[in-house]
């Protein structure tokens, strides 16, 4: 049995350690309808860590690309059944944006830019200890697409307050939204 409506998607985009996951968890009790928080790290955590062979750089790149393409489609599948989904996902490669624009074309996507100062990103990476130092700063591409619907800055603002800002802003958004504007900027041949 199919749902009468397509699910909505909130995509939290920002560098590693910017606070996307914390904001995603803080959004769940604030949103009036049931929402699913589906961070890309949860998909990554499902992957086996023991392999029967050593993966070279090409193998790792291919595996990560397949994982991310699968993530895009898993979110689309949830939304196709009428579920509302919060994504925690850095748009750090242009192909990710292009694939999401196509894969999520049928859904109402709200793109939230999660910003944080470089000094704070570095401090968080060091405190976490589970990310390579410099990863966040190397992800400058997460913002290069130039479009967003909502912006929050976690430098001095906690995840709860950022989540509240997002919820307050959702009702004031107008069309076309960021993903629609990005689709309009694509070359004609990509849209056919």
Automatic annotation (TrEMBL):
InterPro entries: CPT (IPR012853), P-loop_NTPase (IPR027417). It comes from the Bacteria. This is Chloramphenicol phosphotransferase. It comes from Actinoplanes lobatus.
């Amino acid at each position: 049995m199919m749902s009468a409506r397509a699910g909505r998607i909130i995509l939290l985009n920002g560098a590693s350690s910017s606070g996307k996951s914390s904001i995603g968890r803080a959004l769940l009790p604030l949103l009036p309808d049931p929402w699913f928080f589906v961070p890309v790290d949860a998909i990554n955590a499902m992957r086996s860590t023991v392999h029967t062979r050593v993966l070279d750089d090409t193998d790792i790149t291919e595996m990560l690309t397949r994982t991310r393409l699968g993530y895009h489609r898993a979110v689309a599948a949830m939304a196709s059944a009428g579920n509302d989904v919060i994504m925690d996902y850095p748009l750090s490669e242009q192909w990710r944006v292009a694939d999401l624009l196509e894969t999520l074309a049928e859904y109402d996507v709200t793109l939230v830019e999660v910003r944080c100062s470089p000094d704070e990103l570095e401090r968080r990476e060091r405190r976490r200890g589970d990310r390579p130092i410099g990863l966040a700063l190397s992800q400058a591409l997460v913002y290069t697409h130039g479009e967003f619907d909502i912006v929050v800055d976690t430098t001095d603002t906690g995840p709860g307050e950022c989540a509240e800002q997002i919820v307050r802003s959702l009702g004031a958004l107008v069309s076309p939204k960021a993903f629609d504007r990005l689709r309009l900027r694509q070359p004609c041949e990509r849209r056919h």
